[in-house]
Design goal:
Length: 456
């Protein structure tokens, strides 16, 4: 904030509107391209499969690996923002994002593409972590306007993502659609200028704990996909063993160390757990929809990839309006009701996919964008006043790790179920994800107004 803005805030007791809006727009633009890694990539999946001669179930890993790395990157770089400052997290994340994008552009087979997506998503996670840390750190009197600007910008990216994915896939190449998250690099200089050089929480990174968390999440996602990937029994058993051992090691580390990558106080906090379950439900439904809907519309309804992107655009625009509304409602008591309503509608539309209706498929994916934007704004606001500033980056990173792993579980579940039932039926089953999120959104979570000192 400038000296003039600070003086204005002190004299009026409220934030300067232009400054608050500018911050919200800037942080939203840093986070916004992260959305492209899901929605634009989902639209491009049919062309990815045909170009690389891969099965539709195998291409689910384009989204699943992205979700896992995005979650881990968000948690890891969120902790780095606490221990080494936002600038360090942004710079290292930018390097990973750029390297991963280059790998995706030159990949000649699905395995290399998935590896590139993994690295790119880890860097994209840094953009998300820093955007949320900066957004959550604004003074309470400025939060409503900042969150409104953040939500509106996020929704604009959500609204344009499917169209961008369709246009680029149809007229240029699916490779460009898959590296759109790299657009965050254009905003990094603007955020570096206002980011503190160093903010030390006094806690180490705990890289062993981060590795255990990554192994646990990765092995779990592989097991869900084991049938779709046609893994042999020895490999399934080995993966299960890795899951058990890594989960046990992580649990022991959480209980035995106050500096664990996943703090014990955080995983037992009711507000954090409520936000985590909401995000898992909404993201699980969205990732499943972005895996299944484009394939169903292209394969069963004969649509082009471009027409899929165009027809998803109106619903995504509605999501833009709803997310801006969510940014304004978070200061009051109605944000959870908006989130619950959108999530229930999302679940109902996914369940309607059982009919195979193209209209309901479009509606389901569109409502997924709305639920995503509202969830991100609502949960960020929910946690902002609950976590002390020195630990906020790590806590928000871990929260979004659960979101993105939930998204990976959603796409992996849809891919696995598609081996034994029609893809539309699998999508209908995944409707349980956003339904649970809606129920949790309106459930009480205890006190949220006091700041937690032991988290993140």
């Amino acid at each position: 904030m400038t000296t003039h803005e600070a003086a204005s805030t002190a004299s009026t007791g409220t934030a300067s509107s232009p400054g608050a809006r500018s911050d919200g727009l800037r942080y939203g633009a840093l986070f916004g391209p992260v959305v492209f890694g899901v929605t634009a990539a989902g639209v491009a999946l049919p062309d990815v499969a045909s170009s690389l001669d891969a099965s539709s179930t195998a291409t689910a890993w384009v989204l699943t690996a992205h979700a896992l790395a995005l979650g881990v990157g968000t948690a890891l770089f969120g902790r780095l923002a606490d221990t080494r400052g936002v600038r360090a997290a942004l710079l290292l994340g930018s390097l990973a994002l750029a390297v991963g994008a280059v790998v995706c552009l030159v990949a000649t087979d699905l395995g290399v593409l998935v590896a590139g997506r993994f690295v790119q998503a880890a860097g994209s996670g840094a953009m998300a972590a820093c955007a949320m840390a900066l957004t959550a750190s604004v003074p309470p009197d400025r939060r409503p306007q900042v969150f409104a600007g953040f939500g509106a910008t996020m929704a604009i990216f959500s609204a344009g993502a499917t169209l961008a994915g369709g246009v680029l896939t149809e007229w240029v190449t699916w490779r460009i659609a898959l590296v759109l998250p790299a657009l965050s690099l254009l905003i990094v200089p603007l955020c570096l200028a206002g980011a503190p050089a160093r903010k030390n929480s006094g806690r180490p990174m705990d890289l062993p704990g981060a590795a255990l968390l990554t192994l646990t999440a990765m092995s779990f996602l592989v097991l869900i996909q084991s049938s779709a990937l046609a893994l042999g029994s020895p490999l399934v058993i080995a993966t299960a063993a890795v899951l058990v051992l890594s989960a046990a090691g992580l649990t022991r580390r959480i209980r035995g160390s106050d500096t664990s990558f996943v703090p014990r106080a955080l995983v037992t906090d009711r507000v954090f757990l409520k936000a985590a379950v909401i995000g898992i439900g909404v993201y699980g439904g969205l990732f499943a929809a972005m895996y299944a809907v484009p394939q169903l519309l292209v394969r069963d309804h004969g649509w082009s990839v471009l027409s899929v992107g165009v027809r998803l655009l109106p619903g995504a625009v509605v999501g833009a309006v709803l997310s801006r509304m969510a940014g304004r409602l978070t200061a009051g008591d109605h944000g959870n009701r908006l989130l619950a309503g959108v999530s229930i509608a999302f679940a109902a539309a996914l369940a309607g996919a059982l009919t195979g209706s193209g209209v309901l498929l479009i509606l389901g994916a569109s409502l997924g964008f709305s639920a995503f934007s509202v969830t991100q704004v609502f949960t960020t606001a929910l946690m902002s006043g609950h976590i002390e500033p020195a630990r906020r980056g790590g806590a928000m990173g871990l929260l979004n790790l659960t979101f993105f792993v939930g998204g990976g579980i959603g796409s992996a579940t849809a891919g696995a179920l598609a081996k034994s039932m029609p893809l539309s039926t699998a999508l209908g089953v995944v409707a349980l994800f956003p339904l649970i999120a809606a129920l949790v959104a309106v459930a009480p979570a205890g006190r949220t107004g006091s700041r937690s000192s032991g988290h993140g």
